[in-house]
Amino acid sequence: MENDILIDFRFAKEKPRFGELFLITGEEHPKFPPRNKFFAQLAPLGFEQLDDFFGILNSEDTGDDVLVWLFPMLNGEEVFHNSGPFDAIRLSYSALRNAPVNISLLQDCFNTIKGMPDVEIAFEGSNITDFAPVQKKADEIVAYWRDNDIEPGSEQSLLIEEEEEDWDDEEDDWDDNDDWEEETDANGKKEK
């Protein structure tokens, strides 16, 4: 069962850059000045910069370390080390690894971003206008795990491994005898 809830917010007109997105931390980035303050309204939610992404950290002893992730996106993909502009952002929430009560935080994020100008919201391949489909999916995930005697957000839930790609079944494209590119110094000599 897929336990992550992914909600994409696409920007039809004004596409945010990293400077605008950084405002969700409650501060302006010194190297990327914002052109507008739309994302500043998310600052009270408690987002922090976590590497290239943003997240709301869990202050409780139970559940995942990050309650809600926010990823900048380009062309339908999450991007790293990119100053934008971004055509979308993605909220990610694990209904397995978080206590069910934390879905209200995701809903607060949803409602705040929904209120921005010219934003379209996509969830599981369909456009949505309210949180009801997201809540329904979260309830299904919680019910599934409770039926299997695992309480979402518990220590036991954190031990469950998410399904990963099975690399053994895929055909390898590389040959172990392939040469690796070697570094060269300024004079074109190979470094050791």
Integer average pLDDT: 83
Strand content: 15-25%
> Structural class, from secondary structure content?
alpha+beta
Spatial separation of the terminal alpha carbons: 48 Å
Q: Tell me roughly what share of residues is in helical segments.
A: 10-25%
Please mark out the parts with pLDDT under 50 across 5 or more consecutive residues, or reply none. Answer: 163-192
Largest sheet: 8 strands, antiparallel
As an assembly, this protein is single chain
Q: Order of helices and strands, N to C?
A: EHEEEEEHEEHH
Write the layout of secondary structure elements.
Elements: E1 4-11, H1 18-21, E2 47-50, E3 53-57, E4 66-74, E5 77-78, E6 88-94, H2 103-114, E7 119-123, E8 126-128, H3 132-147, H4 155-158
Antiparallel strand pairs: 1-6, 1-7, 2-3, 3-4, 4-5, 4-6, 7-8
